[in-house]
Design a protein that fits this description.
The protein is built from 4 helices and 8 strands; from the N terminus they run ααββαββαββββ. By secondary structure, the chain is an alpha+beta fold.
Length: about 230
């Protein structure tokens, strides 16, 4: 027996609504989880693909010429600092004269025309004349210090050049400057007038170290100059 028309229409509508709701649920599900589904699918596929590419080569660290130079420089600095300390000075700017056992800090750029300034500097060490050059620059380096007429006053006047008159040609002088060591060899010595300052600006055509002190010791009558050339 066939159901009445209105019942059949009702069921048809009900099935249509159900199918629509089901479709909506499926679409909503896909919209919400599609990124996750595609990501998982992509990972699954890629993990099954055999990578036939050669394994990447891991570069080992290499010591470049620049690295070697830097290491050698650092080692040299440490060695110079250690040597200076063993001699009782620092490697910033110091002088060591082995023959007369003279060693002292060098005070840089001291104004030789300012008595107060150089007097203060000479209480601390040997003075480097302002306007003259520094070790390694290939020019004239001028250092000066007090003298004294008595060995008992050497410490009082910081007269490290007390025995400078004992220096002879080929005697060695060592200067530490900026963590480098410079060796000089005495070539000659001179006694000049107290007002003879030409030597500070004289160009010898090569790096020349000049040490000055007053002579006779304990006076300011004349100046004793010791000249030395750079050998190492």
């Amino acid at each position: 027996m066939q159901a009445p028309l209105y019942i059949r229409v009702f069921y048809s509508l009900l099935r249509g609504v159900g199918a629509g709701l089901l479709g909506f649920v499926v679409i909503a599900f896909l919209f919400s989880f599609w990124p996750i589904i595609t990501a998982e699918f992509s990972y699954s596929v890629n993990s099954q693909v055999i990578d036939t590419r050669p394994a990447p080569v891991i570069a080992l660290e290499k010591t470049t010429p620049i690295d070697i130079v830097a290491m050698e420089k650092a080692t040299s600095i440490v060695q110079t600092q250690t040597e200076a300390q063993s001699l009782g000075v620092d490697s910033h700017f110091s002088i060591v004269v082995p023959k007369i056992d003279a060693k002292a800090k060098v005070i840089a750029n001291v104004n030789t025309d300012n008595e107060k300034e150089y007097s203060e500097a000479l209480k601390l060490g040997v003075a480097h004349a302002q306007g003259t050059y520094f070790p390694g620059q290939g020019k004239t380096i001028f250092l000066f210090s007090h003298s004294t007429n008595s060995a008992f006053n050497v410490e009082r006047y910081f007269a490290v050049f007390y025995l400078l008159g004992k220096m002879e040609p080929r005697d060695k002088i060592v200067i530490f400057f900026a963590d480098k060591k410079y060796e000089y060899e005495v070539t000659e010595r001179k006694v000049v007038a107290a007002n003879d300052t030409q030597w500070m600006s004289k160009d010898f055509g090569e790096e020349t170290l000049i040490l000055q002190t007053c002579t006779p010791p304990g006076t300011s009558w004349q100046r004793l100059l010791v000249f030395a050339k750079l050998v190492k």
